[in-house]
Amino acid sequence: MAAVSTVGIVGAGAAGLALATFLADAGVKTEILEKSQEPSSLGSGITLQGNALRILRQLGLWEEISQHGYAFNDLGLRAPNPQGTVLAIVDDARTGGPDLPATFGMYRPKLAAIMRERALAAGVVISYGQQVVAVENLDHGVRVSTEDGQSRDYDLLVGADGIHSAVRKAIGITAEPQPTGMGIWRAFVPRPAEVVRTDLTYGGSCYIAGYCPTGQQDMYAYLVERAQDRHQQKDATIMAELAANYGGPWKEIRQSLVNGAPVNYTHFTAHVVDGPWHRGRAVIIGDAAHSCPPTIAQGAAMALEDAAVLAELLIGSGEVDKELWEQFHHRRAERSGAVVKASVQLGQWLLDGEQNADVPGLMGSLASRLVVPA
Fold it and tell me: Which CATH fold topology does 6-44+108-176+271-370 show?
């Protein structure tokens, strides 16, 4: 019998939907509280590494998801010259095992829709327009208060509500994401025929120029620069100007930008909650507990792994006790912390202009950890 009968989850992102589905499949009454008024249709592309695909397969979603994205098993490196010369094509680590692609790109809103439908089919209740304002630990449960004056009691509350987590703040964890010094332009554009994997260009007008195919017709492209105040300049013109310095597929990408492709600009931030991620019967997972720059594309994977491990422990344990929390923290803190550290380190090497950085060594060491299931 599961350690809990009712669970409240704050946030309808990947971590929240995955956890809710695992628990509902096991007969746990599960409700997601989402502050948005309706399902979000915003977003561009998402890169999913093999260890993320492993969790999605556990949810029974891989077959459907595989029809709505673009899989590849290698990584390209290009020169920052007008030709976009291909310098190398290297095998990418298959962190989900040999029977899953190394990397899979897809349209982020489509992934969210597939996961949402799976959760609803399992019996998960998703309540929209529910902004959490307070969390109170009870003797054998937790009480959640929302902005509309309602309150709900659960056996357990999970904050899967992202980097600006309301649950994290409500339970007294003071860690907050900190800027790393980089900013990123993203655009969702038609896929040039030449784009069949992620290619990265280091140097030129930006620190990194890259892209990821998300389907037969589309992809997302990104440019990483030193963080700037772009709040009044979030249009495709500036990204197009930066893209003009790169060759190969970037010529077509730039034309899409000139034609008005939607763009987004954000700053890189990172954080890891030091110490336990729970307070009483409330716990945080995913970006609420740890966040990192997308330099190694492991953010979604870490969030999904958090959800899978927590669900496994809750379903397989007789009660929510010290042993359960120690196991959860032992299995998740060091692993996710290593991902955050590596992601930040890669960016810092670029900021510092480090010429002798051991990028292959760092990535190889991390991949050898991630190929082992969480």
Answer: FAD/NAD(P)-binding domain (3.50.50)
Dihedral angle at the C-alpha atoms of 97, 99, 102, 103, nearest 10 degrees? -120
| Residue located via tokens 């195919």 | 213
**The residue to which tokens 């997308």 are assigned:** 294
Domain ranges of the chain: 6-44+108-176+271-370
Verdict on whether the full-model pTM lies above 0.85: yes
Written in H, E and C, the secondary structure of 76-131 is EEECCCCCCCEEEEEECCCCCCCCCCCEEEEEHHHHHHHHHHHHHHHCCEEEECCC
Averaged pLDDT in 10-residue chunks for the chain of 374 residues: 93 98 98 93 87 98 98 97 96 96 96 97 98 95 96 98 97 97 96 97 96 97 94 82 96 96 94 97 98 96 98 96 97 97 97 92 94 94
Beta carbons within 8 Å of 229's beta carbon, 6+ residues apart: none
